[in-house]
Amino acid sequence: xxxxxxxxxxxxxxxxxxxxxxxxxxxxxxxxxxxxxxxxxxxxxxxxxxxxxxxxxxxxxxxxxxxxxxxxxxxxxxxxxxxxxxxxxxxxxxxxxxxxxxxxxxxxxxxxx
Length: 113
Description:
By secondary structure, the chain is an all-beta fold. 0% of the residues lie in helices and 29% in strands.
C-alpha cells in the first residue's frame, strides 16, 4: 500500500482515500489526490456573503440579525464591525462589536463595507 500524504489543512496523518479524493477524518478537509504537492488549496481566501475577498483589518456590515447564544442580545442588521481578524474554523472572523464585546462571526453573514 502506498503512503498517503498528511492533511494540508491540519497536518493529520490519518488521511484516507475515497475514490479520487483524499479525506481527513479529524478536520473533514477533502482534496484531490491528483493535486500537485497534494494540497494547493484554492479556497484559502475567506469571502463575504457577496463573494468579495476579506482581509485582516477590513470593516464589514452584518446582513442578518444574529442572536448571541446564551444571552438575550442580538447583533442587528446593519451593525458595522471594524478591524476584523480572519481565523480558521467554522466561525472565521474574530472581532469586537461596540456594546457587545469580543465575538466570532461567520463570513456568510457579513458583507464588506
